[in-house]
């Protein structure tokens, strides 16, 4: 009798924790997808769509289901035509705590803090040394020098003057330009230009296009490469002005000589350092840091575990092939163009190029 009772008690003790799992398996309570708040994603366009709908409903008595509470969060709202004219209290302390909505273009004064969101149906031009939360425009946004954007911004195109800080994601439907000494976390657009416009890399610079000079390269055909993949188990120096067709994987550090071309992707467990005018048709991935030389062209994504430094007048991606540059620390020299997105979790900055003379 006692052995049977002991066996039953033992089965009860060890089986009780499994009861919730059995019930979940039988009832299938988790088949519905979880709701994800767009405010907690980097899809700025989705967040902008919600904000746009909220602005459209600020003057209505009723709203969509689930949207009324969000619309009330915009209050109080001030509607502006043209230039923002602060009230006496706002002019005294330099702070506007109202949501600004305009049906046309909007010009903001210098040295102001805007603690709530700003919407412009056409264009928005901030003042210098502004502090802003959210900017949404159906046209162009001009962020003047010394300003700070704390949450997010979205427009058809965005121009950011020098010494600005973008603490949240910035996106544009078409183009973004960040000038010297701008700090950023995440920027995405069809084309992103770093530095002044006249410093930009030539528009026909494309890693995937035949450069016309392949005939002048010395072709590298290592015997250990097979099936389009070359695996190197030690540090490697890739010769300058050399062409290799295939993917390259290095278990160590990699140095790529100037003028080299790799028709494939490159990955190293250590650091990667390339000379100027290097072309890579695929991705460039490193377990350490990546240093890209001047006037390089990389067609695929560029990612590093520690940091990336992109040389001046380089091109990453292509007009018909958007890609991503991502690292905890990302420094981009003036003149570089990225098609797609650039993300830096800890520090992103546009570095001026002192070697390029101004016109």
What does this structure look like?
With 359 residues, the protein is mostly beta strands. The chain is 13% helix and 40% strand. It is built from five helices and 32 strands. The chain has a 32-stranded mixed β-sheet that branches. It is flat, with a radius of gyration of 27 Å. Residues 61-72 have low confidence and may be disordered.
- State the end-to-end CA separation: 99 Å
Largest β sheet strand count, sense and barrel closure: 32 strands, mixed
Strand content: 35-45%
Kindly state the percentage of residues in helix.
10-25%
* Global geometry: flat
* Class derived from helix and strand content: mainly beta
| Arithmetic mean of pLDDT | 83
Give the key terms.
32-stranded mixed β-sheet; mainly beta; 359 residues
Short structural summary:
It contains five helices and 32 strands.
Please describe the topology of this protein.
Elements: H1 2-15, H2 19-27, H3 44-56, H4 68-72, E1 77-79, E2 82-83, H5 88-93, E3 95-96, E4 99-102, E5 106-107, E6 113-114, E7 118-120, E8 124-125, E9 131-137, E10 140-143, E11 148-160, E12 165-166, E13 169-178, E14 183-194, E15 218-219, E16 229-232, E17 236-238, E18 242-245, E19 247-250, E20 254-256, E21 261-263, E22 266-268, E23 272-274, E24 279-280, E25 284-286, E26 289-292, E27 297-298, E28 302-304, E29 307-310, E30 315-316, E31 323-333, E32 337-351
Parallel strand pairs: 1-4, 2-5, 3-6, 4-7, 5-8, 6-9, 7-9, 8-10, 9-11, 10-11, 11-12, 11-13, 13-14, 15-18, 16-19, 17-20, 18-21, 19-22, 20-23, 21-24, 22-25, 23-26, 24-27, 25-28, 26-29, 27-30, 28-31, 29-31, 30-32, 31-32
Antiparallel strand pairs: 14-32
């Amino acid at each position: 009798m006692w052995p049977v009772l002991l066996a039953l008690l033992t089965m009860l003790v060890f089986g009780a924790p499994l009861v919730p799992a059995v019930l979940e398996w039988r009832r299938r309570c988790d088949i519905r997808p979880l709701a994800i708040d767009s405010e907690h994603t980097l899809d700025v366009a989705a967040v902008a769509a919600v904000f746009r709908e909220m602005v459209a409903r600020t003057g209505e008595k009723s709203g969509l289901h689930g949207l009324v509470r969000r619309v009330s969060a915009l209050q109080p709202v001030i509607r502006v035509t043209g230039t923002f004219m602060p009230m006496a209290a706002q002019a005294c302390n330099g702070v506007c705590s109202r949501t600004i909505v305009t049906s046309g273009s909007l010009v903001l004064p210098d040295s102001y803090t805007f603690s709530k969101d700003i919407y412009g149906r056409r264009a928005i031009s901030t003042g210098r040394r502004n502090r802003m939360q959210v900017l949404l425009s159906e046209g162009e946004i001009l962020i003047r020098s010394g300003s700070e954007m704390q949450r997010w911004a979205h427009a058809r195109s965005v121009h950011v003057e020098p010494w600005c800080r973008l603490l949240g994601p910035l996106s544009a439907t078409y183009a973004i330009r960040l000038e010297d000494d701008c700090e950023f976390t995440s920027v995405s657009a069809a084309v992103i230009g770093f530095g002044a416009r006249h410093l930009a890399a030539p528009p026909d610079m494309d890693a995937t296009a035949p450069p016309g000079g392949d005939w002048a390269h010395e072709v590298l055909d290592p015997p250990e490469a097979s099936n389009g993949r070359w695996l190197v188990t030690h540090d490697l120096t890739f010769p300058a002005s050399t062409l290799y067709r295939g993917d390259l994987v290095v278990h160590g550090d990699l140095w790529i000589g100037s003028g080299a071309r790799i028709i494939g992707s490159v990955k190293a467990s250590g650091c990667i350092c390339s000379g100027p005018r290097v072309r890579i048709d695929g991705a460039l991935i490193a377990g350490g840091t990546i240093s890209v030389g001047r006037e390089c062209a990389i067609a695929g994504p560029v990612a590093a575990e520690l940091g990336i430094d992109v040389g001046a007048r380089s091109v990453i991606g292509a007009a018909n092939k958007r890609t991503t540059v991502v690292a905890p620390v990302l420094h981009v020299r003036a003149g570089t163009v990225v098609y797609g997105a650039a993300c830096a979790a800890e520090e992103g900055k546009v570095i001026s190029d002192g070697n390029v003379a101004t016109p």
